[in-house]
Amino acid sequence: MRRTMLATAESFPIAGTFTISRGAKTTAEVVTCTIGGSGLSGRGECVPYARYGESVAGVLAAIEDMRGAVEDGMGREELARIMPAGAARNAIDCALWDLEAKLSGVPTWQVINAAPPQELVTAYTLSLGEPEAMQRQAAQEAGRPLLKVKVGTADDAARIRAVRAGAPESAIILDANEGWTPENLAHHLALCAEARIALVEQPLPAGNDSALRDLARPVPICADESVHRTQDVKSLIDRYDAINIKLDKAGGLTEALALREAAKEHGLKIMVGCMVGTSLGMAPAVLLAQGADFVDLDGPLLLARDREPGLRYEGSTVYPPDAALWG
């Protein structure tokens, strides 16, 4: 079967501004890969991330470099061997999964999970801001069962207390985006314990997180930027209690599934997260997140406009994708 492959860049407006410790943005810039064969086509979406040296132009070029091999029939396993993990490989890998499902008539969930997928409760993300503004954000979303709050400044004490005051009953994940230091880590973690924070994500910079090894962790710590591939997991178990699996970091669903199994084998909790993208990018992650301890797949909820058809969200509940969307 001869295939075709095409990659396109798209921009989706964010509702308001999305702010983390590294900066703010008002649009989600995504790249969509479409692979066709036998009159059918599969799609995959990725989000190039500057933190990892990625750009839209660079991802488009990387996908184009693989076009000949993919059109000649290269499979997902070979793709993983010859292409580095990252956004470009994610788009191709997920497009291949989608095409395989359409050609075989067997849904992706049936290949990767033992049971039909169920709806999930996702976190809803609050942007970094001044404590008073963050308390208002938290109060507005206090009806949601799980909030993810962006922090990562030299002193987040007021922010931690403010979001807990704004949403006294919600479970809260704090995402420091590598913004804390070994010097302020213990102080912040003590405040997190006081505020009943459920999980702290990547408090220290990747590659400079050895302080976690010798420090009592009163709140579970989750690796994000510190974990990309399955090979990373074993080296993290003395510093982290959980890992955040993102398709764009792992380079697709194929590697993400292996990461999920490695985390289970080493007794780590599993969080399935996302970049800010559309329902097409979230769809395979919803299947990956079945049985996860924490789910953070709210990307489409942060957009002013999503794809049609998109995932079905009811409040913080996200439902498995229909075949018309993906898989």
From TrEMBL:
Binds 1 Mg(2+) ion per subunit. Residues 131-222 form the Mandelate racemase/muconate lactonizing enzyme C-terminal domain. Its cofactor is Mg(2+). InterPro entries: DgoD-like, Dipeptide_epimerase, Enolase-like_C_sf, Enolase-like_N, Enolase_C-like, Mandelate_racemase_C, Mandelate_racemase_N_dom. It comes from the Bacteria. The active site is at K150, K246. One of its GO terms (molecular function) is metal ion binding. Mg(2+) binds at D175, E201, D224. It is an enzyme of class 5 (isomerase). The keyword Metal-binding applies. Pfam families: MR_MLE_C, MR_MLE_N. PANTHER family: D-GALACTONATE DEHYDRATASE-RELATED (PTHR48080), ENOLASE SUPERFAMILY MEMBER DDB_G0284701 (PTHR48080:SF3). Belongs to the mandelate racemase/muconate lactonizing enzyme family. This is Dipeptide epimerase. It comes from Shinella granuli. The lineage of its organism: Bacteria, Pseudomonadati, Pseudomonadota, Alphaproteobacteria, Hyphomicrobiales.
